[in-house]
Amino acid sequence: MIAVVVVLVLGFCACVCGGSTLLGDIAPDSATEDPYDRGYYEDPEPSWSPPQPFQPSAPATRPADGPGRYAVTYEVTGTGPVDLQFYDGDGYFIQREKVRLPWRMELRTDDPDRVLVSAARADDNEGGFRCATTVTGRPRVTDAVGPDGWRVQCHARPIR
């Protein structure tokens, strides 16, 4: 009786192992086969592309004269030229290169905290320069640099 059970168990194991090997050759396991052989990962032609972020072709070069409640005055004095950066009346960041000094601009804004003028030494400037901002109802803010410095910044309020 034991011999019959052993023969049946061995026969069952042989069928299971041999059958799974045979089935593996006919229909391979999808988890172990190479997915690139089936063509599922071919790059299809895109039918839609995401919108590109808006980037202006060049930085703004002239200030806006907004209908703001606060009068703002920017000044940069000294020897020039300098590269200027400042916020206009609408809050846009303006950049100008190689500006001769003295330079002054008056504008109006609704956001008195978005006031900034920055001047950086241009390549052929060998002297010192200074900046100043004045905003309605606030103290004047100034910054200066000598011949060895390279940049000044004046905000809406003194930096503490």
Summarize the structure.
With 160 residues, the protein is α+β, with helices and mostly antiparallel strands. Helix content is 16%, strand content 32%. β6 and β7 (141-145) form a beta hairpin.
Mean pLDDT: 76
Q: Number of DSSP helices?
A: 1
Q: Order of SSEs, N→C? A: HEEEEEEEE
Structural class of the secondary elements?
alpha+beta
Alpha-carbon Rg, integer: 37 Å
Order of the strands making up the biggest sheet: 4-1-6-7
What is the total tally of β strands? Answer: 8
Shape designation: rod-shaped
How much helicity do the residues have?
10-25%
Strand content: 25-35%
Distance between the termini: 98 Å
Q: Low-confidence stretches at least 5 residues in length (pLDDT < 50)? A: none
* Largest β-sheet summary: 4 strands, antiparallel
